[in-house]
Inverse folding.
């Protein structure tokens, strides 16, 4: 590697812009549907289905939770399913021994949506404030 590369001195060439993270488009979609997602989370809690609603965001086929926003129908980047901690435990996504850790980490569902983001590289939970 040349020293210029380490110092980002590319001899007059413009550096290539970094590819947008898929999280940029996810944030945009979540912002657009924030009110609807909030209503679904409230419904899950009010109906006594769970104290811990989870939204599953993905861009391919996935059978986890109930479909609520289809990216093909809505011409968006992400499909969103609604699920719960209980379903995640039944399916083995959250192991029984990690339940308490999940609950301690879970943010107030009045202010934050819990999103399980699935991308080709893996999956993880993120907490996104409602707009």
């Amino acid at each position: 590697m040349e020293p210029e590369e380490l110092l980002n001195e590319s001899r007059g060439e413009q550096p290539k812009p970094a590819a947008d993270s898929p999280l940029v488009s996810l944030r945009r979609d979540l912002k657009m549907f924030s009110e609807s997602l909030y209503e679904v989370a409230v419904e899950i809690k009010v109906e006594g289905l769970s104290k811990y609603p989870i939204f599953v965001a993905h861009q391919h086929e996935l059978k986890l939770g109930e479909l609520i926003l289809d990216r093909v129908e809505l011409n968006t980047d992400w499909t969103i399913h609604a699920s719960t901690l209980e379903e995640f435990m039944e399916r083995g996504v959250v192991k029984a021994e990690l339940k308490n850790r999940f609950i301690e980490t879970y943010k107030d569902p009045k202010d934050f949506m819990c999103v399980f983001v699935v991308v080709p590289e893996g999956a993880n939970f993120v907490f996104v404030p409602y707009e």
Q: What stands out?
A: Residues 58 and 118 are 5 Å apart (CA to CA). DSSP finds six helices and five strands in the chain. Residues 22-129 form one domain. The radius of gyration is 19 Å.
